[in-house]
Amino acid sequence: MADITRRFGLRHLRSAPTAHIRHLRAGKVVHDGPGLSFWYRSLSAALSEVPVDDRELAMSFHARTADFQDVSTQATVTYRISDPVTAAARIDFSVDPDTGAWRGAPLEQLATLLTETAQQHALDVLARTPLAAALVDGVAAVRERIAAGLAAEPRLPATGIEVVAVRVVAIRPEAEVERALRTPARELIQQEADRATYERRAVAVERERAIAENELASQIELARREEQLVDQRGTNARREAETKAAADGVRTEAEAIRKVRIAKAEAEAAREVGQARAQAQSAWLEVHGRTDPAVLHALAATRVAENLPRIESLTLSPDVVTGLLAKLGSSASGER
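Structure for SPFH domain-containing protein, as requested:
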């Protein structure tokens, strides 16, 4: 919308570069072009503002396929007004000279024209196409048909409209039909998922079997080695017992020989000791045989006295002392 200001009873219009302004006064063109800025009188001015930029028109409509299935089509048409003079002459783009707002709804009129034209060509294509083909190849077919139909439509150039591009976003069936169409694919996907699950389980079972076989083989090998270990331990124990028995025999034999030698030595020593004692006894008896009996009696008394308990005091009568002295005296004279 143009920017209009008031000053001293006049109006000043300033438009955008994408808006074509057409100013008529008394039926004559005073200003004509995009992005204009000028002064005018509102009572004598007839103004038109035609947008010349590219505009997007989104449209959605229902159609019926060859197998009588309802589908919804979403498309977008890009257009522009290539001849603003012709468009201003065919469509009411006049604006209020005081506010700059359109007096009518020219863009809605253009939208209706383009939508109905595009819908007519799309319906013609979809009515000849089954639902499955429409969902697979319908987007390209409908887009080409709409583009060709709009390019061949004589009313559009006559109105100064040029179609820049056509895009078909989607063609969709009803929700129930769409779910029904998705079911086979979903079942196939589910089957593939189940097959993958079964294969994964089979691989897992195979791996578990391999692991179990490895464990069993390991246990068998361990048992075999344990058997070898037991045999080796028995062999070692037997060898150790044999070695110990042989050592004990050698030790026992050595001990017996040692004891025999000790016994022989002890017997030899005892024999020599006996002989020495016998010789000493013989010599002792021989000496005592030559000794006076009184001396022997005295020695015997001495030995007896040595073995008697301690006597603190002894009282002898004079007769005993006299007798002893007499015996000692006679013994001494006999020795002389």
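Residues 3-173 form a domain with the Tetrahydropterin Synthase; Chain A fold (CATH 3.30.479.30).
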